[in-house]
Design a protein that fits this description.
Chain A: It holds the Pfam family MoCoBD_2. The complex is a heterodimer of chains A (about 775) and B (about 290). Chain A is an alpha+beta fold and about 775 residues long. Chain A contains 18 helices and 30 strands. In chain B, α10 packs antiparallel against α11. Classes of the chains: A alpha+beta (about 775), B alpha+beta (about 290). Chains A and B meet through α3 and α18 of A and α11 of B.
């Protein structure tokens, strides 16, 4: 289908504002008489609060209020369980969500205990130092495998063995095929914790307007509408009294959809108490403790394969670190459980996990949201099996891909959206083939690698594939209207954190109404403008909100046709919308501009007929029956310094399939950014906790993000396998770049040392860790 | 991450600065480039009551050659000034080679030679390089001035031989001997990070190519920059050979240093890196001296 706007590399509508520093971020909101907040956060990871003394803090000049849990009265409530457990048989689920301020017990280092409100953040921080909290220190639960033992201390006194959840999902019967397998390989895999480290930390500014009885909140949230709904309920206000604005946000990545963060509960409340604007901007040190983390699983996994490399079954038992509280239910471990199956036809699958509470910050989804753990385990098992069987990584993947004619493909287990895990569409072979071509896989193995090895250089190649469940429900909406100026206004409820919504959504509408993309003004994330929807998460913006934009544009087009047919006395079928006008097909003399038509649709005289509406405006909603399944192949060549074990990426290829592409340039950016984050998670970033649950590297000096020098330019290509589940045929792309990078690193580094019996079964890696693994010189004959 | 309350002074002359130091001494901190001090204050790890900003002193950022004393560098010379200085490039090539390893351009535009030495971070490059170069430091207080050899300057983790009221004003780097060789290298996780291990080598050879005087200095392997004394002694009167490099690297990494472990590198890995770097840098230094 020929398109003018959809699918084009169109420059981003939002960039002039962003690049010239004109875009509004939460910290840019400076209202007169604003008060500032700082928190006393626990230095300890685990302990009972014996007493809190805030007298000195209250006396400090400039301090307006000091609040403990007691001071909140009935407003002190646990946060909501955002995602209840899915309907899986025999599931164990022990609910425990976070609190606004710790009351009796501290459950992780950095947990907020006291809120100080002062005339400046400086004074507030000084006052925090005046506070004395007497804590009876308790042993901390840190190691997730030990957390489930009888000897372990308890994070929550009433939750036995710290078990947050226990879930078994099964397809076929692994036990019945295990003995028949040609080869069975078992390994233990570790995927350790990291943090999203968005460029912008969190922040909340709240302003209670006493005269209008109206609360306005600027919040770095990915979900302004649910925040509005929750705040209204908590504060006893109607939803129309609360306006939540999620302005431009410097990166979300998942942690900014945690609800409710203590600060989101407290800042609006205290603004209402004090009847003054109140601002809290998280600093980087706070971010390491008080914004949610992710990763943290240990898998004991097994693959059973036939002689020809065909997977007979997978058996996986894993422990998931939920952190101190689990407001997100089982989303992350269910994602791991489901995404492990990847692009492959796995007839028999047994997957069991235990989520455990630990005295560490809360774990919620972060770009990939558990998917990379599953992908890591599966891809590693395939690599080990291939090696054992004398196959290449390419061959074993090709052998096991779900064939193109098998879609929709039912994995027979339940996904994070509570629907059965059914892949809507896919075509994996061409992506693998293209990646192999682009990276010149065979040439590398046959010519380059032997030549470089002779020169003493360690270089390795890796190639992995993955699927990504994207675009889940429940629904999103959009409102499209045409101004008398001829320009189009488009409003949607989801927030934006840099994805390019102001352009991609505009492109969808432009395609339908044939107006230039820059003439479509997009508003996102302001509940006053649009009050229905869920939020930006799970790679769903383009799929769900994008489809709603499309539907609304079509509804407006219908109105254009209807009104123009009356004016032009022509049949609706004989009209066309073209170049900002509507006209009788092929008769430019009949053209009426869309602006003119919009003015006629809003007459100052005469009546709007019964059963019709004024204006060229429509609101539509879209709710997919289930998620779409994107997929891809990543390949890379690394060089490893054999003396220092520093690793350099020589080439990085991504061949990606997210259905129909709205804007290839924006997609490239998403992939590039995702891979950068994946590289960080695989090789640079790791949160180190000591045995007391203390985070040892809560700054960018010691928590290493990859810089522009460490991230290569990603090369690649796109395969387009449209989704049948939405009118645009699109699938999500937000997380794809980040998901398989760990597995890829492991394979490529192993390949660089292919003569050394190296096995990499953990992420993140580091030069230090590689030195240790290589020094230990593990042998492979453990099978 | 806001600093505690402090009083701020910005003297316009050295005399004024020394008076302030005399008055406030231990309570006061000198603000030079601020690249270590300001973050430490924001983290409230440093809580000086008095901040004396010496960025107003005009005559402290010179880089000049002195016939007798070698190259003289004012304490307020910025890394970026050292980086671009022809005098440094020609007369202190080891220093010239080192500067690009220090942090990032933005930091080098602010950070100063004096600040780095006085801060005495055991992971910093400059203290180690100054030790390798046998620099001497001019310290002043209200009562006068004294010159301290760099070997007597570092006293432990972030510790120096400075008195509470002293200000470092100048660093003197002696002239290079003839047939001089040098090398600097470090291994860091990312470019610009504090090194996991770093080494500076400075040596000269006689007409027969034998080492006359050689210094190997490590950083990030102890409480202060570490002069590898045993290994350096093994250089004495030796011609370069594979065996010599191997032997010295072994001694340096196993006997001269006692590195610790942290989240980025174990002690074992640090020793391994020290050995790797020693061989590489010594070889380069000999090559230059023999060229």
């Amino acid at each position: 289908m020929a398109t003018r706007y959809f699918g084009q590399r169109i420059r981003r509508n939002e960039d002039p504002r962003l690049l010239t520093g004109q875009a509004l971020f939460t910290d840019d909101v400076n209202l007169p008489n604003t008060l500032h907040v700082a928190f006393y956060r626990s230095d300890y990871a685990h302990g009972k609060i014996l007493s809190i003394d805030t007298e000195e803090a209250k006396k400090r000049p400039g301090v307006i209020g000091v609040y403990t849990a007691e001071d909140l009265g009935d407003y002190w409530q646990r946060g909501p369980l955002l995602v209840p457990p899915p309907p899986i048989k025999d599931i164990v689920f022990n609910e425990r969500t976070q609190v606004p301020l710790a009351k009796d017990k501290i459950c992780h280092a950095g947990e907020a205990v006291v809120m100080v409100v002062a005339e400046s953040r400086y004074i507030a921080e000084d006052a925090v130092e005046d506070i004395e909290v007497d804590i009876d220190f308790l042993d901390a639960v840190v190691d997730i495998e030990k957390a489930m033992t009888d000897e372990s201390p308890l994070v929550h006194d009433d939750i036995e063995k710290n078990i947050a959840a226990h879930v078994v999902q099964e397809k076929g019967s692994y036990s019945s095929i295990r003995d028949k397998a040609h080869t069975v390989i078992s390994r233990k895999f570790i995927y350790d914790r990291g943090t999203a480290a968005a460029m912008e930390n969190r922040g909340v500014v709240a302003n209670w307007d006493e005269r209008n009885q109206q609360l306005t909140v600027w919040d770095t949230t990915q979900a302004p509408i649910p925040i509005r709904n929750g705040l209204a309920a908590m504060l006893g206000l109607s939803q129309s009294q609360v306006r939540v604005i999620a302005p431009f946000i410097g990166g979300g990545f998942g942690p900014k959809i945690m609800m409710f963060y203590p600060e989101e509960v407290l800042i609006p409340w205290v603004s209402k108490q004090l009847k003054r604007p109140v601002k809290w901007i998280e600093d980087r040190e706070e971010n390491f403790f008080s914004t949610t983390h992710e990763r943290g699983q240990v898998h004991e996994a097994e693959i059973a394969v036939a002689e020809d490399g065909k997977i007979l079954g997978i058996h996986d038992v894993f422990v998931h670190d939920a952190g101190a509280y689990a407001p997100y239910g089982l989303t992350v471990p269910i994602n791991s459980q489901c995404t492990l199956l990847g692009c492959y036809d796995v007839p028999n699958y047994y997957s069991e996990f235990t989520a455990v509470f630990t005295n560490k910050p809360i774990v919620t989804p972060y770009r990939g949201a558990g998917r990379q753990h599953g992908v890591f385990v599966m891809e590693r098992l395939l690599d080990l099996a291939a090696q054992k069987l004398g196959m290449t990584p390419v061959e074993i993947r090709r052998k096991n891909f779900i064939p193109q004619d098998a879609f929709p493909y039912d994995n027979e287990i339940i996904y994070q959206d509570f629907s059965p895990l059914v892949y809507d569409s896919g075509n994996y072979e061409p992506a693998l083939k293209r990646a192999v071509e682009l990276i010149e896989y065979d040439k590398f193995i046959k010519e380059e690698q032997p030549r470089l090895l002779q020169e003493g250089k360690r270089v390795g190649i890796g190639i992995v594939s993955y699927v990504e469940g994207t675009g889940i429900g429940p629904y999103e909406g959009a409102k499209v209207s045409i101004d008398p100026s001829g320009k189009v206004s488009l409003v949607t409820g989801i927030g934006t954190q840099g994805q390019g919504h102001f352009t991609s959504f505009a492109q969808i509408v432009s395609e339908v109404l044939d107006v230039p993309v820059e003439d479509v003004r997009v508003v996102t994330g302001d509940t006053l403008e649009f009050g229905w929807g869920a939020g930006t998460f799970a790679s769903r913006g383009a799929v769900v909100a994008g489809s709603a934009c499309h539907e609304a544009a079509l509804a407006v087009k219908k109105k254009i046709h209807k009104l123009a047919s009356e004016i032009l006395e022509a049949s609706e079928d004989d009209l066309e919308v073209s170049g900002g006008n509507v006209q009788v097909k092929g008769v430019p003399d009949t053209a009426i501009s869309l602006g003119e038509l919009a003015a006629k649709a809003n007459p100052l005289r005469g009546a709007v007929k019964p059963g019709t509406e004024p204006g060229l405006e429509a609101t539509s909603y879209f709710g997919p029956s289930r998620g779409t399944t994107a997929s891809g192949v990543h390949a890379m060549i690394v060089s490893v310094d054999p003396e220092t074990f520093l690793v350099n990426i020589e080439r990085y290829i991504v061949v990606h399939d997210c259905g129909r592409v709205i804007n290839p340039m924006i997609l490239d950016g998403q992939i590039q950014g995702g891979v950068a984050q994946g590289i960080g998670n695989a090789f640079y970033e790791q949160l180190f906790f000591d045995e007391n649950g203390q985070l040892l590297n809560a700054s960018f000096m010691d928590y290493l993000l990859p810089t522009s020098l460490d991230v290569p330019k990603i090369e690649g290509d796109h395969i387009e396998t449209p989704s049948p589940l939405n009118p645009l045929g699109v699938k999500g792309a937000g997380e794809a770049g980040a998901i398989p990078v760990g597995a890829l690193y492991a394979q490529a580094i192993e390949n660089a040392f292919h003569d050394c019996n190296l096995e990499i079964l953990e992420i993140p890696l580091s030069p230090n860790r590689l030195y240790e693994i290589i020094s230990q010189n593990k042998t492979k004959e453990q099978i | 991450m806001k600093p505690c309350t402090f009083e701020y002074y910005k003297p316009s002359s050295m005399e004024e600065a020394l008076d302030l130091m005399h008055q406030y001494g231990g309570e006061a901190k000198i603000l030079a480039g601020g690249q270590s001090l300001v973050p430490a204050m924001n983290f409230r790890l440093a809580t000086p009551g008095i901040l004396i900003d010496i960025n107003g002193l005009q005559d402290l950022s010179y880089i000049k050659e002195h016939r007798k004393h070698g190259v003289l560098i004012g304490a307020m010379a910025r890394y970026s000034e050292l980086e671009k200085s022809d005098v440094v490039a020609k007369k202190c090539p080891l220093l010239h080679e080192t500067i690009p390893y220090i942090a990032h351009p933005q930091i080098r535009n602010r950070g100063t030679m004096g600040g780095s030495l006085v801060h005495a971070d055991p992971a910093a490059e400059l203290p180690a390089v100054m030790l390798a170069l046998d620099a001497s430091l001019r310290l002043r207080n209200k009562d006068g001035e004294r010159v301290v050899a760099i070997t007597d300057f570092f006293t432990g983790m972030f510790g120096t031989a400075m008195k509470e009221d002293e200000i470092l004003t100048e660093v003197a780097i002696p002239h290079m001997p003839k047939r001089y060789g040098f090398a600097f290298d470090e291994v860091s996780r990312r470019h610009g990070d504090y090194a996991m291990v770093g080494v500076a080598v400075s040596l000269n050879v006689d007409r027969k190519g034998r080492c006359e005087k050689g210094k190997i200095v490590f950083f990030s392997v102890g409480d202060a920059p570490v002069f590898a004394e045993k290994a350096s002694q093994l250089l004495d009167k030796q011609n370069v050979s594979e065996e010599l490099l191997e032997n010295i690297a072994n001694v340096a990494s196993s006997e001269d240093i006692e590195p610790g472990s942290d989240i980025h590198a174990s002690a074992d890995y640090r020793r391994h890196l020290a050995k790797v770097l020693t061989k590489k840098t010594l070889k380069r230094a000999f090559d230059k001296a023999l060229a």
